[in-house]
């Protein structure tokens, strides 16, 4: 995409995953896949030798990954689980056992068999609608790539040898790549592929360096040594910029850093509007290791602790004790602030090695989240016991995802009651008055909100899924992602109905989707009556700053005006103009860029 301010230069737009501005030289990293040039049959007397060749390549890959893990810099050592997940992939039956069976049964060479196993794994992942999980296919491919290189004897360039300050440009970066980088020499990442939940994004955020992914063909457009400007806030990349662009972005960088530092110093102040309304600003998190950053950024608690990674991290299902230790650690660290733990929001297809559940045509609309938990009550009970036990060590409440109607609440609460009885019979301590809430992310739950509100202690509006289900949009699908519209009038009316229903029933209501961390959405959400937001912890200082700059009365007036508009574009244009007037420095610092 050509930028209007730099129309005479080559400008690209990708997915921004880690904010900041950098100007530096490109280091083009060749991460092209090994081409399997030879596919051939193996004679019976050579089969065992071929299996051993494959096993040796697996073992060599394991040793390489273990070495990388041991060499990880202290700054990112807490993310060593990324390497652990790669090591677990090498032991997974879909990769390991399946490949050996193909060698023996089809009598084909190891490279060919491994390639066929990868094709089968891709087919499984193609049916997964969850963005975080579907992005993990890139990690599987990267692990298999290392095995293929060990089979073929083709060495890959080591990123540990980079000794100049550069911006890494690659098709993709594997978890192993990001952990072996010399972090003092890497200014940032830009890649052809990846998304908000890719490991490249996770590591860039951990290192606090700018990153832009999903650029599609950046490796074809950038040459080694090209000068680049990378804006990790807007996703804008400028290739070989002229002097005026360089000066402009140097000024933007200085302005943003000063602004970021100034608001960070006040991040522990309460988010109180100009007319005295206190808004609770909590954090979303999915890794136990994030809890320190949550406190450091001034969160009022944890409004959404996603528990899926604890299951993905383990080979098979994690034990109740493992879950309990993780939940307890977070509860104790964040206490006396509130911790809201969401129960498992994954489908049965993620546990293929443990459960025999048939593949589904559309897992997003199939057996996932609360539906999966109700169908597999022993898995559900194990997690509920862990959450309840952890509640004895902090201010914990639990939340059920993807509720579509009252019966699911009644069934889930019945299982919760059974678990409480089990713990009581063993004299196990837990919070007897633990609050129970639900995610509102399905249109039917919006319609039934006034009924559901009578059976729970709080609502949490999950706008990411709600927008997708309400507008029939898959935001991961690049063909229709542009239609993912948080400003759609229908979405705003849905949120308003949920808020009104919760308040009428006297229960709490929060919002925990990406809208909560969007500077353009803050005023709208306050006008809708939202009094608690939960968002990425790094965005907390800015969102608090915005709230302290506006009044509830102005926000309500804006919503009355917005409610008369008919399209998402009209709403966006209106609120952008209003935010420029209410918090003018947001425009100056580039936080309102579209």
Largest sheet: 9 strands, mixed
Please give the share of residues in helix. 40-55%
Could you tell me the strand content as a percent range?
5-15%
CATH topology heading of the largest domain: TIM Barrel
What is the oligomeric state here? single chain
Note the total helix count.
25
Tell me the count of domains: 3
Rg from Cα? 25 Å
Number of DSSP-assigned strands: 17
Give me the CATH superfamily of the largest domain. Answer: Phosphoenolpyruvate-binding domains
Average pLDDT, all residues? 85
Structural class, by secondary structure, is alpha/beta
Q: First CA to last CA: what distance?
A: 13 Å
| CATH class type of the largest domain | Alpha Beta
CATH architecture of the largest domain: Alpha-Beta Barrel
Shape: globular
Stretches where pLDDT falls below 50 for ≥5 residues?
1-7, 348-363
Helices and strands in order:
Blueprint: E1 10-13, E2 15-18, E3 21-29, H1 47-70, H2 81-91, H3 96-106, H4 110-126, H5 131-134, H6 136-152, E4 166-170, H7 175-180, E5 186-191, H8 199-207, E6 211-213, H9 218-221, E7 227-231, E8 236-239, H10 243-264, E9 271-272, E10 278-285, H11 291-296, E11 301-306, H12 308-312, H13 320-334, E12 338-342, H14 369-375, H15 377-390, E13 395-400, H16 406-425, E14 436-440, H17 443-447, H18 449-452, E15 458-461, H19 463-471, H20 489-505, E16 508-511, H21 522-528, E17 532-536, H22 540-547, H23 552-562, H24 568-582, H25 585-588
Parallel strand pairs: 3-4, 4-5, 5-6, 10-11, 10-17, 11-12, 12-13, 13-14, 14-15, 15-16
Antiparallel strand pairs: 1-8, 2-6, 3-7, 7-8, 9-10
Helix pairs in contact: 1-2, 1-3, 1-6, 3-4, 4-6, 13-15, 14-16, 15-16, 21-23
